[in-house]
Specification:
The complex is a heterodimer.
Chain A lengths: L1 H16 L4 H9 L2 H4 L18 H4 L4 H24 L21 H8 L1 H25 L13
Chain B lengths: L7 H32 L7
Classes of the chains: A mainly alpha, B mainly alpha.
C-alpha cells in the first residue's frame, strides 16, 4: 500500500516536469519551426534552414528553451566581444586593473581571481540569474512570455 | 523600446538582426579568445 502511494506520487511528480504542451505540439509539427520564427537566413540574407540534426523536431517541446538559449548566448556574446576589445583601449581606474598590472585582456580572469573582483562579478551575475533569468525562463516555459522577451524585461 | 519599429514586418527584421549579430558574436568571442592566447597580442589579435 505504501509502495503504491509512493509510486503514484513519483508518477505525479514526473508528469509535473514533463512538457505539457502536447496539444500545441501536434499543430507545430505540421508547420516547421522555420515557418513560425525568424532567423532562418544566412549572412547574406538568403534563406537557410539550418538544422542538420533535426533537434527542433526531435525535442519539439523544447523549442522555446532553444530559442531562449540562442538569444541569451547571443546577447552575452555581443557584450563579450565589445568588452573584450574595449579593455585594450580603456581600463577602469584602479591599480589592479591597469595596463601595467594586466597587459593582456585574456590574462585578466586569472589575475583578478587572485586579487578578488571576479568573485564580486560572480556574485552579481549569479544574483541577476537567480532573480531575473530563472523567473523569465520559467515564464517562457509556461507560455506567458515569448522567448527572448522584451528588452526592458531581459 | 526606443529603437523598436512598429509593424510586424519591420520588427521581425530587427529580431532577425539580433539573431544574426548574436550568432556572429558567438563565433567571434571564441576566435578572440583563441587568437589572444595564440598570439599574446591585444586588439587586432594578430
Amino acid at each position: 500500500m505504501k509502495s503504491v502511494a509512493i509510486l503514484t506520487a513519483l508518477a505525479g511528480s514526473a508528469a509535473a516536469f514533463a512538457p505539457a504542451s502536447t496539444g500545441k505540439a501536434s499543430t507545430a509539427i505540421m508547420a516547421s519551426v522555420f515557418d513560425n520564427y525568424v532567423g532562418a537566413v544566412d549572412f547574406r540574407g538568403a534563406e537557410m534552414k539550418f538544422d542538420p540534426l533535426k533537434l527542433s523536431e526531435t525535442y519539439e517541446p523544447f523549442q522555446g528553451w532553444f530559442r531562449e538559449c540562442e538569444l541569451r548566448h547571443g546577447r552575452t556574446a555581443m557584450l563579450a566581444v565589445t568588452g573584450f576589445i574595449a579593455t585594450d583601449f580603456v581600463r577602469i581606474p584602479g591599480e589592479m586593473y591597469s595596463f601595467a598590472a594586466i597587459p593582456n585582456t585574456i590574462d585578466a580572469h586569472d589575475a583578478l581571481l587572485k586579487t578578488g573582483p571576479m568573485y564580486q562579478l560572480a556574485l552579481w551575475i549569479g544574483l541577476f540569474d537567480i532573480l531575473v533569468t530563472a523567473p523569465a525562463c520559467q515564464a517562457m516555459g509556461e507560455g506567458e512570455r515569448e522567448a527572448g522577451g522584451k528588452f526592458e524585461s531581459l | 523600446m526606443w529603437f523598436a519599429p512598429s509593424g510586424k514586418e519591420a520588427f521581425d527584421k530587427k529580431r532577425e538582426s539580433e539573431l544574426m549579430n548574436g550568432r556572429l558574436a558567438m563565433c567571434a568571442v571564441g576566435g578572440i579568445a583563441t587568437q589572444s592566447i595564440a598570439t599574446g597580442h591585444g586588439f587586432p589579435f594578430v
